[in-house]
Amino acid sequence: MSIRWKTTKGEFVRQVSSFRNTVSAEPGNPFQPAPDRYHLYVSTACPWAHRTLVVRALKGLEDVLPVSIVDWHLASDKGWHFSDAATTPGAIPDTVNGFAYLHELYFKADPEYSARFTVPVLWDKQLGTIVNNESSEIIRMLNTAFDEWSSAPGLTFYPESLRQQIDDVNAWIYDQINNGVYKTGFATTQDAYERNCKAVFAALARVEDILAESEFLVGSTFTEADIRLFTTMVRFDPVYHTHFKCTSGTVAHDFPNILRWLRRVYQMPKIAATVDMDHIKKHYYVSHIKINPTQVVPLWDGPDLTVPVGEFVPRSQRK
Ligand SMILES: N[C@@H](CCC(=O)N[C@@H](CS)C(=O)NCC(=O)O)C(=O)O
Question: N or C, fewer C-beta in 10 Å, the chain?
């Protein structure tokens, strides 16, 4: 049952997602948009799944796309499992298939499936299969495909005129920060650890510079690039700094512009409710027993993100 991430020379290599279909109104597409036809399976602990929850909330798709939230504990043998809220506050069971484990969903979609059983999963209730399990693609679908039933139709996090800039920033932030913290934390050689840790902090310095002069990653427009970085940065101090040994600095003490941006994003309507720090901390510190055999969970939740930030003023215009 246990499928290992491929590693070469102590290096963590993330697997490529397997289900890559798209919900769209394109004629002939078997996955046509419809309200309550699809179901989203997530973990609130997982930064990749968290992206989909943020876009779902901001687009007002809660009724159009119901969710199941797995238990925060990821078992090394059977993977994610479902709990009810009485056992695990914040969990939502599998109300669609009634499964106990996420892997059952993958085998229902493909009995021959042999890769990892990851969240998020976008499930089609009509065809009884997985549409897509790649967060970067799911957020693009949620951005437009369900606009007919969205409470924020037309609101886009991937505007046509900024696509090139968004893609460019996403590419290095994915490699050096979103996935970079995992490459650092899961490294099993000193060399792989140091190389990846340095890359994380070089990229954070680059982000710090951008956010000194600009309100968001791509100018003054809040885009999917911010959402994708947000779900990593909200975990940075409480988890990645300590658990993944990203110890060359914290957002709270070393990156004032990132901190201000993190607070600004956190304070946007509906975003704070998508952050479940209890699931986040317990998931990493308790599930990864090779990294943290005592399973003790540190107390700190990171900087207080409710501190007001006020109007954005570029560094060059600050007094
Ligand atoms: N490329 C995927 C990555 C998703 C992913 O790695 N999810 C992790 C949780 S953070 C997972 O479900 N892991 C389960 C496992 O490895 O068994 C995406 O962005 O959607």
Answer: C
